[in-house]
Input
Amino acid sequence: MTGTAGAAVGSGATSAAQSLATVGLTKAFGGVTALDAATVTFRQGEVNALIGPNGSGKTTFFNCVTGMIRPDGGRTSYRGEEITGRAPHLIARAGIGRTFQLCRVFPRMSALDNVLVAARSGGLWNGLRGARRRAEVDRARGWLTRLGIEHLADVEARNMSWGQQKLLELAGVLMSGPETVLLDEPAGGVNPALLDRIGSLVRELNAEGRTFVIVEHNMDLVMSISDHVVVFDRGRPIAEGPPSVIRSDERVLGAYLGV
Ligand SMILES: Nc1ncnc2c1ncn2[C@@H]1O[C@H](COP(=O)(O)OP(=O)(O)OP(=O)(O)O)[C@@H](O)[C@H]1O
Ligand SMILES: [Mg+2]
Output
């Protein structure tokens, strides 16, 4: 479906189909403007990156577009359909999954149970009841295998390394079958071996048709896996383009280095 007049938002400046898009998204916390009328378009079927200095509004952007916090103004659409103001579970149902900068797993549950529970919107009990269903268990194990942590299936999440917990959180997100995945700093605090795995996994999952929007400070990872990069500074985009262009953009260097 192409963007329908009226419902569609976004700059419309790109030829690729729109995935997640915002127009004038604004959010202030007291006197701090976290998002300053941000108008952004991410591309369907691509690996998009959202980069920018600390405090530039990246996580707030994810929180607003996934319905976790209410923006003060502006609109959000997904694949041309307006989703502004929808509750998080409805946005998830529309096909958007996300991970958190401070990874969210149940520390005293096994890795396998974490994946089973994460996939179910009915809460913990429904999740555990569903866990008895063989097909679900097989699917959950399949994701653990895909992420290279199947040997930890029976280990409590709190006994896994930070990087392993991040992979576990991602397994839970993937279990619910999102078409679009938002990752908030997947490489943060992760050791180099797991970093490579995350990078190649994103490319594989993208080749299978998933769209990604990745917030990340590790520039090597961003530049090696992204098709399209959006750069935030002080709550709004200041540049966008392919990695090769972004790498040498003066505004980007200025935002990061303060020059
Ligand atoms: N819940 C909140 N209450 C008050 N201020 C907040 C809140 N969340 C974010 N902020 C402020 O909004 C601004 C943007 O923060 P945000 O976390 O979105 O940045 P970020 O780009 O994700 O940064 P980082 O790269 O460090 O994760 C910052 O000045 C931050 O202190
Ligand atoms: Mg952040």
